[in-house]
Amino acid sequence: MPKTRGFSLFASPWRWYLLALVVIVIDIATKVWAVERFMYGPAMQIIPGLLQFTYAENYGAAFSFLADAGGWQRWFFGAVALVFSAVVIVWIRRLPSTKRWEPTALALILGGALGNLWDRMLLGYVRDFISVYYGSWHFPVFNVADMAISVGAAMLVIELLFFKDKSEEQGKSSAEV
């Protein structure tokens, strides 16, 4: 049976853009849920003494960096997210269709960046709702987009540290044939 070269949503790179879209949708849906549930109500203990859902508004970047800078940071972080997202879109597009780990990582980062960009441009801040704490120690409140960015970044680091040489060797050996 001959192969046809038509458009397929699940062909590379579209499947990675679809994964980024799924991250965006889940992020926005969970933020809407958190606003409705926790903005004016009490926090929900998930694991007492460790994990709760609450509501927070982050006017800065990661860990509220520059949160009290006066408003210019909204547009600055928005522009950075847009430029970075464009770079990631092109990066995914240029990857070989045989790659799986790297484009998955990039799609998670892209979805997270665009999910937070949505909040930042629409509201002027990012909605966070997941709180991890132990005793008096509290990790900064975060959201699904932040988790996607963190997991994607960790995957890229793992790729670079442990798998980059193997993929380069495979690329060289297939080019020599």
TrEMBL record:
Which residues of this protein are catalytic? D128, D146
Gene Ontology molecular-function annotations: aspartic-type endopeptidase activity
| Cell compartment(s), UniProt | Cell membrane
- Please write the reaction equations for the catalytic activity of this protein: Release of signal peptides from bacterial membrane prolipoproteins. Hydrolyzes -Xaa-Yaa-Zaa-|-(S,diacylglyceryl)Cys-, in which Xaa is hydrophobic (preferably Leu), and Yaa (Ala or Ser) and Zaa (Gly or Ala) have small, neutral side chains
Give the transmembrane ranges.
14-34, 72-92, 104-121, 141-163
Q: Which Pfam families match?
A: Peptidase_A8 (PF01252)
Identify which top EC class this enzyme belongs to. hydrolase
Give the record's keywords alphabetically: Aspartyl protease, Cell membrane, Hydrolase, Membrane, Protease, Transmembrane, Transmembrane helix
Q: What EC number(s) has UniProt assigned to this enzyme? A: 3.4.23.36
Entry membrane topology:
Multi-pass membrane protein
Q: In its keyword annotation, does this UniProt entry include Cytoplasm? A: no
Pathway per the UniProt entry: Protein modification; lipoprotein biosynthesis (signal peptide cleavage)
Q: What PANTHER family has UniProt attached to this entry?
A: LIPOPROTEIN SIGNAL PEPTIDASE
Instruction: State the protein's purpose.
Output: This protein specifically catalyzes the removal of signal peptides from prolipoproteins.
Record-stated family: Belongs to the peptidase A8 family.
**NCBIfam families linked to this entry:** lspA
Report the protein name in the record.
Lipoprotein signal peptidase
Origin species, per record, is: Microbulbifer elongatus
Record gene name:
lspA
